[in-house]
Amino acid sequence: MAGRDLEAIARGIYEGLEEDYLEDRIGQVNYLGQRLIETGIPVQKPLGGHGVFVDAKKFLPHMPQEQFTGQSLVVELYKEAGIRTVELGNCAFGYKCPETGKDICPDQEFIRLAIPRRVYTDRHMDFIVSAFKNIANNREKIKGLEMIYQTAIMRHFTARFRLL
User: Fold this and answer.
1) Which residue segment(s) compose the domain that 68 sits in?
2) 57-72: per-residue pLDDT in tens?
3) Which of 14, 69, 103, 127 has its CA at a distance of 20 to 30 angstroms from the CA of residue 79?
4) How many CA atoms lie within 13 Å of 147's alpha carbon, on the beta-carbon side?
């Protein structure tokens, strides 16, 4: 690694030990989580220190998990506001049963809103909440996805989908 990169890692480690920094970092994640909760967006509790996990199954109860509920919400959030997030559900942790070809879905279906350190302001967090409000107003119109390509291992890295 370049010396600059090593120094950045070292600074990050030292900074992560500063209580004022940790209070601010955890506070920003808590701010986003509380605002989403106030808006009626189902999130995983307790809120963490690096991001907020939205419960896609509760947010889109009309959509069968086999239609990739979390991935569908990821797509909608990107279309609505250009917000990139990640699905942690059927695409990431599900699999096709070799005997039946049927999707075996995990119990949970989340999307993770990871908050990089020292990048975003509370106004950015408010923008995320506003995007979720807009999506929530039309959530019953959100369509599921069909996976049209997957690899045998770690399918979520290269999967391709078609809108249903």
Assistant:
1) 3-163
2) 999 999 999 999 999 9
3) 103
4) 24
Radius of gyration of the chain from its Cα atoms, rounded to whole angstroms:
18
Structurally, the chain folds into a number of domains equal to 1
Residue 63 φ/ψ, nearest 5 degrees: -100, 125
CA torsion, ordered 1, 25, 122, 141, to nearest 10 deg: 80
The stretch 63-86 carries a mean pLDDT of 97
Query: Is residue 161 helix, strand or coil?
Result: strand
SS3 content of the chain, % helix, strand, coil (to 5): 50, 15, 35
Q: How many CB atoms lie within 10 A of CB 57?
A: 20
Q: Please, what is the average pLDDT of the chain?
A: 93
d(CA 136, CA 39): 9
Tell me the one-letter amino acid at 102. K
State which of 14-23, 24-33, 34-43 shows the largest mean pLDDT.
34-43
Q: For position 125, which CATH number holds?
A: 3.90.1150.10
